[in-house]
Automatic annotation (TrEMBL):
Pfam families the UniProt entry points to: Usp (PF00582)
PANTHER family xref list: STRESS RESPONSE PROTEIN NHAX (PTHR46268), UNIVERSAL STRESS PROTEIN HP_0031 (PTHR46268:SF15)
Membership in a protein family: Belongs to the universal stress protein A family.
InterPro entries in the record: Universal_stress_UspA (IPR006015), UspA (IPR006016)
Name of the featured protein: Universal stress protein
Domain UspA: 3-146, 155-281
Amino acid sequence: MDFKTLLVELGSDPGCADRVAFAADLAQRAAGHVIGLTATGMRLEPFRGAGDEAGRYAELARRQLLAQGAEAAAAFQRAMHEAAPGVGFTHRIIEDDAGWALAQQGRMADLVVLARPAGTDGMPVLVAQTAEYVLLNAGRPVLLVPQGVRRLVCQHVAIAWDGGREAARAVADAMPLLRQASRVTVVAASSTHDRTVTHSAPDVHGAHAGLRDQLERQGVAVAMHAVQGSHRVGQLLLEAARHLQVDLLVAGGYGHARLRELVTGGTTRTLMRHADMPVLMSH
């Protein structure tokens, strides 16, 4: 299945135009369509008895949100015409939380293109950011695009593989891009930081031969690469991806979708927040 319908997150961040160009490029390859979504945030209605003044403030706030939406639509249109003039596109404005809106609309898309969440510099995060919420709730693959990346070269793709359900789902969802890649490397990481992991290097050639065979039947030739170290798995995977100079990292996204609580796994958070290459994730 090709990516025929791509939903892209619109916002005021510096990487928005890059993200739109990235989605437009993917849609152009598959003769697809791009939907740009502007979420204005939840609009609070004045409670009964608050008075006329509260109603006027609420109406003013609503008009400001709609004006912002109109500006976003114009910027989206300019970015699409600049990146891919022949690609069809639609703009939608939803007066609700960005994560909720993208997750709901993303269920009718083949791929959701999102901004990479900001790093936290070691500080704990208690509330899920937009990308994390969408990953856990949309039921569709997400592609996180760092600022400055406007198209997917797709020369070298790495698959973060641990044999889990989420990783298998990510491989299946990424198949259109895996078939385009000149090189595909399956990376298995083993961390001595986890006491439950043995200190022997992972047997990536033996344990994951089934994945290699499956991909080769799909016409995707793969190489196997094992990494081990004292850092956590997420950091090992990122170091391997940078060393291999990959253009795209494919990985399973782990966690539990419970309201807005942050329950993504540590490896998932590391890849989402600190990868400097595009990352395709499925949950």
